[in-house]
Every structure is written in structure tokens, then in C-alpha cells.
Write the C-alpha cells for this entry.
Amino acid sequence: MRPKKKRWIRCSPKERCFRPRCKAVNELDGVVLSLDEFEAMRLMHLEGLTQEEAAQKMGIHRSTISRILKSAHRKVADALVNVKAIRIEGGSCDIDYNRR
């Protein structure tokens, strides 16, 4: 397996953990959303960029952003449907607030 290419993100999450209030903490399972998954969702769904534009901002290929988004969507759906916490951490990323 070849090493992952470094992904650029411009937005570090202000909150790193989201959890449902309807379950006790000791009863919760969780999913981990990587920083690059978080950034891809932010660029596509909040900023309204195309996959090509988002991939360019993150310094990766369009097909890579498609795989990242698919993984992120699966994790968020799992957390919502199965009442799980979401932690945002990790990933092969560098934060660059000046990258365009």
C-alpha cells in the first residue's frame, strides 16, 4: 500500500465531539470522522463547491474526494441512525489557513 498524499484543510473544527443527549455516555458507541472527511463535507455541502473544486482546494484528485465523501457520509449516517457519538480526529492532513 502506498502512503497517503497529504491533504490540505482550511478549517479546524471548533468542536471535536458530538454526542446524542438521549443516551448515557457509558451506553454510547461512536464513529471517528477524520479531519479530511470533515473538510470534504464542509467544502461540498456548506461551501457548495463541486468535487473538482473541493479536490483542488485540498490538493488531491477528484476521485479521492469522492471516496472521502462516501466514507464520511456512511459514518455520519451510521451515527444518526444508530444513535452514536461522532469524534473528529486524525487523518493525513495539514492545516493551512491561507491556501486557496
Remarks:
- DSSP finds three helices and five strands in the chain.
- The first strand starts at residue 7 and ends at 9.
- Strands lie at 7-9, 17-18, 30-33, 85-88, 93-95.
- Residues 23-90 form a domain with the Arc Repressor Mutant, subunit A fold (CATH 1.10.10.10).
